[in-house]
Amino acid sequence: MNRKDFLKLLALSPLAIASMKLNELSLIAQEMSLTEKMPLLFLGHGSPMNAIEENEFVTGFRNIAKTIQKPKAILCISAHWETNGTYVTAMDNPRTIHDFGGFPKELYQVQYAASGDPTLAKDTQSLISKTEVGLDDKWGLDHGAWSVIKHLYPKADVPVIQLSMDRTQSAQYHYELAKEISSLRDKGILIIGSGNMVHNLRLVAWNRMNDDDYAYDWAKEAGQKMKDFILDGDHKRLINYRNEGKAFDLAIPTPEHYLPLIYILGLKEAKEQVQLFNDKAVAGSLTMTSVKIDKA
Length: 296
Hints:
Elements: H1 3-10, H2 14-18, H3 22-32, E1 40-44, H4 56-65, E2 73-78, E3 82-83, E4 86-89, H5 105-108, H6 118-127, E5 133-136, H7 143-152, E6 160-162, E7 165-166, H8 171-179, E8 189-195, H9 217-232, H10 235-239, H11 246-251, H12 259-267, E9 273-277, E10 281-282, E11 286-287, E12 290-294
Parallel strand pairs: 1-8, 2-6, 2-8, 3-7, 4-5
Antiparallel strand pairs: 1-12, 9-12, 10-11
């Protein structure tokens, strides 16, 4: 039941309302509580070790979750699921994918047992007309999803699905595709993009891993420009990032960690406010900068 229909119900006589069963009214109230537009999140996920470490970024994820109404489900666009074409996970119980190597045994033992949501997957599929969307029953939840969502909802009590990114398409394409799923926000679905704005693993300063907010000059330049464009609503320059010069080329050597941000910006509506958090650099060539978009 939508808000308009609920208001019509309130206009009925008290006898008509009284005739409804208590559980029916309860269900209506629950549904109404999820009709307020959900915010959007872009989360800088950084190292997989953030899944098991206690640090300021993990605290930032937890704190931002406290400001958000508990969603009915989550749709996540992760840097770590690129495909030829577009797919959405549609299984009941997605597996926890440990898609990395060389980390402590403890990290591989993490299981994030959130359920899937086949109905939401089909709804997402039906909303997208830009391309044919396949229903996937093999992928699961990669670390771009579970390593951050586990801090938002540690009880794994919110269903999660993932939408893949077509590696053959441009940033403009992804920006436009995102707009087609905007109505999910009105149905209690929290849409999360997970990646990193500045992400160049080839140039990581391993000897500066523990230096607070250390960034190369080019990373500072690119990161600051990205934040300025986001706050100014200049999505065109963010979409056409290859025109922004050498600093951007170094910050985005490959697009997969950057594109989840483009999805979230594509979903932003006019007059919604932007909040930056976890706004720090790591090891010279990475930034953890994260974004929340919500009503003003």
